[in-house]
Amino acid sequence: MPSNKPILISGAGLASLLLAQSLRQSSIPFLLFERDTSFTFRAQGYRLRLSTEGLDAIESVLPPDLWTRFWAACGKTGGAGFTAFDAISGSTTEHVVPESLSSRGGKIVGIARGDMRRLFADGLEDAIEWGRHVTGYELTSSGVRALFADGTKSVEGAMLVGGEGIYSKVARQVSNGALKVYDTGARGIHGQAPSTAFRGLGEGVFRVRDGSRPEGSVFIITNVRPGDMDDPDVQFGWTMGGQPGVIKAPNDDYSIVGKKAADIAKALTKDWHPRFRPLFEQMDEAEAAFWKITCSTPSGVPEWPNEPRVTVIGDAVHSMTPAGGIGANTAVRDSALLGRLLREAGGYAPGVTAEYEKQMRVYASQAVHISYTTATGQFGVLIDEKTSPTV
Q1: Would the N or C end of the chain have less CB density within 10 A of its end CB?
Q2: How confident is the prediction for the chain on average, in pLDDT?
Q3: Shared domain check, 63 and 25
Q4: Which part of the chain is the FAD-binding domain (predicted)?
């Protein structure tokens, strides 16, 4: 019989929050545990391009009023489609028509990660317990408890969902180490600037690549929507990446945010073409943040003995490089799928996690493969599943 105990969710990222929205719509009790102390604790990251599958998953979960607000917050970009530039000369090196990237109405749809997280959290505030770092779980005779870094335990839940990202302790425990996230050695920096700084690009999705460095190339990816390019109060984001060894943090400390990260981005782009310089000269230094380019097992999401009361979603089970822009879209598909299965079962029931994992492995393995193979060309990364380091 379905249980009245809450579904416990570790992490309050995009996948976790969307799953919570699904549970709320189904009147299934839940609790979220987030290690940060608030949503403003860390930089919120770059702009996400939403695929047809991602948008369908989100719309299937959000209530109509929240979906309307979410859709209104998305940028709908038509214009030039995808264009690649040489960072030094400013010349065009590649162009792809909009239809191949569009997801709805012939438009490329994107939204800032921070805006997406804020909207997904709407109405969930009372269910989030802040400053709760989940380090594992223990099964009970009729449920499961989350274990916290301070030595305490959660209330007993009917099920635990690990959605705490690439460092997920829940993923490691439930899979007995089968789930691995490889450190590709490539690094990046997230940045934001007033929309007016993007006028030199115009509307569209862009990649700007600098291949002049002997140690390897560096690039940025950005999505510029129309309508806001004359409003200095609106910010657009860009994502910088570099081949292994190109982007380095002081003392190898990739937790650095703010001016120190911004200064490195400015130094790397000081010789770029004038049309791209405003993105860095006018950047909001407080929003700059390093990130590691990681990837789950390239051969696909591994199998592990199913634990009926514990499963994982999002980056905890299938971390991807930014190549292809499909990581977040795959994560929200997890949320919609698991939420639907729980709704159909009336809450936790034996077999739910097994069915979710069976279906998830198919589309997630395909997505990881696409992301990794694309990244081998773009970023020069190479993973050996036997010898490459893990995070």
Answers
A1: N
A2: 90
A3: no
A4: 308-366
